[in-house]
Amino acid sequence: MFNRNDILETVNMISQENLDIRTITMGISLRDCASDSRRVVEQRIYDKITRYAQNLVKTGEAIEKDFGIPIINKRISVTPISIVAESSDEDDFALYAKVLDNAAKAVGVNFIGGFSALIHKGYTKGDRLLIKAIPEALSTTERVCASVNVATTKAGINMDAVKEMGHVIKECAEKTKDNGAVACSKLVVFANVPEDNPFMAGAFHGVGEPECVINVGVSGPGVVANAVRGLDPAADFGMISETIKRTAFKITRVGQLVAQEASTRLNVPFGIVDLSLAPTPAIGDSVAHILEAMGLERCGTHGTTAALALLNDAVKKGGVMASSYVGGLSGAFIPVSEDAGMIEAVKAGALSIEKLEAMTCVCSVGLDMIAIPGNTSAATISAIIADEAAIGMVNSKTTAVRIIPVPGMKEGDIVEYGGLFGSAPIMRVNPFSSENFISRGGRIPAPLQSLKN
Amino acid sequence: MKAVITVIGTDKIGIIASITNILAKANVNILDISQTIMQNIFSMIMLVDTDKMSMEFTKLGELLQQEAEALGVDIRLQREEIFTSMHRI
User: How far is CA A361 from the centre of its chain?
Assistant: First the structure.
């Protein structure tokens, strides 16, 4: 028989502390869907996605019932459409986004990622067409997510792309101004993007990935926060780290179990478990509250970066032993609008964009789900992207920007999205211009740390 | 296949009786039961063998869920692997 306390601990994590599997994401290669005819490409994409993913949602729900663990999202990532559609005779790539949207609806997944382009060193014809189509694609579809990689440690930063993405984000905001610029929440600009990330909006199926694969993203900030709160208030950092490691191990083991089970039932190879702690706006599911449980009055005050560094490291150390293959982003997420503690911290004046930028130096993701005034210039947005990309490039890590300039809103206003996207207070942006810097264009050369051979 | 049933809620007469009744009808064998009452909160953990079960696993889950609502307690049916993977290396 089991240890009684172990069983009650697991049940309590699920029922009281929001432990869940955040996503089962099926990666599907669309490389064989290319053709010179638009109609053929569309048909091949739709047929392949609906064939491979027809049982994804059903299987996810069955696993949920068998193990009694909620699996919040079932999603799909595909080969970057810039590659798949490049040889077609169609110049309007937004049409392909509609096909992805229809396929996602047909199989019942809530998001499909891969309306993407990798342009860290430069553009191909397909990349240009895809980026041009992003505002139209994201404003006319419901479930399609887009991502663009503008920098890597190996290639440096493509500042032409950084400049263009500032305009693309503004255009996305303008096209969905009646819905809080929601299109921007489906667009991520990356540096060092991972090819096997299961989390939206940045998921796509990399070109080095197999035909089809199952990747799983775990969650559980509430469980970690409660474990830290349960410690003696005088516990030192060694104790905190040890407690988080143990908790992360348990959380990740559930992810590994679900990933293997999904892989077996769907007869698709298991790719990776992503160790990220993904918050939601629900009470008790916040990364900010973990940092506060360590002794910070508010997330964002001095000491926050150190607390996040400890958290991120301990989660990885605990998680890595619990899973046979770890990948994706694997770090604590700090999306402002999706984390109740982050929202409170911004409202209280404790958390600024500058502090969030510092925090991204020690955790995986970047400036995520941050709403800024609608009159922020494209050049300022590009400059924010450039700063994040520089952090990623120099530190050989993934960074990203998912920023939302909400038309008509100013600092201090609140934009409501509902559901997993939450609500976002509009944050202050530095008012001084970056225009001349961004207008230079060209590439920032790869740093010395890329020369490892 | 083995599964764990946990029941947590306010104590009352007949909780175990009604649950074991459902299990017997489903041809599910009970391997172990442990039950405590602390401050009037009833908690029971049951390890069961579902190899000869006469219905689908999810169907049993639904029946237990209906009973949970009737009794006003929280009942969970989970395959044992979630506990073994979490708590044993």
Answer: 16
> Closest by alpha carbon to A386, among A343, A432, A438, A342?
A438
Burial A339-369 (b: 16+ CB within 10 A, else e): bbbbbbbbeeebbbbebbbebbbbbbbbbbb
State ipTM: 0.88
Q: How far is CA A23 from the centre of its chain?
A: 11
Query: Is the Cα dihedral A425, A148, A198, A106 positive or negative?
Result: positive
Q: How far is A289 from chain B (nearest CA, A)?
A: 24
Query: Which chain B residues have a beta carbon less than 8 Å from that of A69?
Result: 78, 82
Three-state DSSP at A44 gives helix
Q: Residue A1's pLDDT band (boundaries 50, 70, 90)?
A: low
Rounded distance, CA A116 to CA A96, Å?
Answer: 12
Best of B35, B87, B88, B89 to substitute, by most chain A Cβ atoms within 10 angstroms, is B87
Summarised one tens digit per residue, pLDDT across range A189-211 is 999 999 999 999 999 999 999 99
* Six token digits for residue A185: 């929440």
Size of interface A-B (CB pairs under 8 A): 63
Query: Which chain A residues touch B if contact means CB-CB below 8 Å?
Result: 1-4, 6-11, 15, 62, 65-69, 250, 253-254, 256-257
Same fold, A25-191 and A221-444: yes
Q: Where are the domains of chain A?
A: 25-191, 221-444
- CA A219 to CA A370: how far, in whole Å? 21
- Contact state of B87 with A2 under an 8 Å Cβ cutoff: yes
Structure tokens, A265: 């039932």
- For residue range A379-422, list pLDDT tens digits in order: 999 999 999 999 999 999 999 999 999 999 999 899 988 776 77
- What type of residue sits at position B28? V
| Domains annotated on chain B, with CATH | 2-87 (3.30.70.260)
What is the dotted CATH code of the domain comprising A25-191? 3.20.70.20
**Distances in whole angstroms, Cα of residue A60 to Cα of each of A108, A252, A402, B27:** 11, 17, 28, 27
| Residue A5 CB neighbours (<10 A) | 10
Cβ <8 Å between A11 and B81: no
Nearest to A254 among B61, B80, B86 (CB): B86
Please report, for residues A189, A401, A407, the alpha-carbon distance to residue A182 in angstroms, rounded to integers and kept in the order given.
Answer: 15, 15, 11
- Of A4, A62, A65, nearest to B45 by CB-CB distance is A4
Domain A221-444 -> CATH class: alpha beta
Q: Is B26 left (phi over 0), alpha (psi -120 to 50) or beta?
A: alpha
Residue B76: list chain A partners with CB under 8 A. Answer: 11, 15, 68
